[in-house]
């Protein structure tokens, strides 16, 4: 009978506890990393986002969406409906789950290997048992986990950006839909005036009191008004359907009501002298690009560290025989880089890293340009809308009042009065479009200050998700 060595057993126990400790830190979080997305939506939008991962959560969201749609939809309610109900956004939330799964997997210990052999020599039977562990992967485990942690953080920022982008696109679609409804009403009034003018011209021409040229001119106004009405109806339908898609609505939900007019133009435009500095400090796409470059830098270091020793296995061997004493020992298995020196893998890592650096620089340069362009567009749109409100519309109103007085004094005829009414309504429609453009420019400026999602941003860090050791 053999007695085991207690010191050896204690050392093995300590090693086992240490290995379990390394593996125990790799677990799933309660919210799947969604708290950062919720925090971004709350801080930057003052809105709520919900990741519906069960039927009960989806049913609750459906009820809340129904409550918001039961009344005329405001722009803030439209954004909230989109954040609750857009299926594309819900799909992007699962990127967090995929990335966290990669993070947890990167922190898992490599599975040990077990070997068993049975040899016979005459009456002697020899049993060989071995346990092997990939030590190279175990050594690289902390670095691999740090790389995946950075990638997970990058995915969180990308997901937050998608939330902000959906909010901005919903605001723009909302303003377009409301403006299209309002324009349609005014163009309909122009069409009514053209109808009356054309009918009056027909009757006067039949009575011989109107020339052919005058009647043709009124008929031309009528034809143009009819065409503009069809175009306005088409624009209204297209704008509303785009908003419906962003809100993720279908069936009876699409019968929601919009307000009759756009929000009023503010008295003053925002003055942002340090807008470039603000954007560089707050844009999430720049932060995500930096994280991607840092992750690839870590991956490059790991690729270089495991260039020559990519597989290193340590094993314990236990041989027993029915005739000989039991044999115990260990074995080390090392991959010899005779044919593959991992030069291609290191070169790929270097190229990916340098590519990420260039893309980060491109993102920063584009960010400065985009925010300047957005701010100039915002100020220009404000100046145009204010010019309509303070100059053009008051002048058109004054002209209309003077023409009414001249008509009452029989100094002008009904056709001149109708023509002036058409011109005035066209000016009102121009103001509606200018006001729409201002609110859209405001949404573009808000988005330029936080960044924009890049579909290729995560592709550059795919190699960081691979653990070079162990292949």
Automatic annotation (TrEMBL):
<keyword id="KW-0998">Cell outer membrane</keyword>
<keyword id="KW-0472">Membrane</keyword>
<keyword id="KW-0449">Lipoprotein</keyword>
<dbReference type="InterPro" id="IPR003423">
    <property type="entry name" value="OMP_efflux"/>
</dbReference>
<dbReference type="Pfam" id="PF02321">
    <property type="entry name" value="OEP"/>
</dbReference>
<keyword id="KW-0564">Palmitate</keyword>
<keyword id="KW-0812">Transmembrane</keyword>
<protein>
    <submittedName>
        <fullName>Outer membrane protein TolC</fullName>
    </submittedName>
</protein>
<dbReference type="GO" id="GO:0016020">
    <property type="term" value="C:membrane"/>
</dbReference>
<comment type="similarity">
    <text>Belongs to the outer membrane factor (OMF) (TC 1.B.17) family.</text>
</comment>
<dbReference type="InterPro" id="IPR010131">
    <property type="entry name" value="MdtP/NodT-like"/>
</dbReference>
<dbReference type="GO" id="GO:0015562">
    <property type="term" value="F:efflux transmembrane transporter activity"/>
</dbReference>
<keyword id="KW-1134">Transmembrane beta strand</keyword>
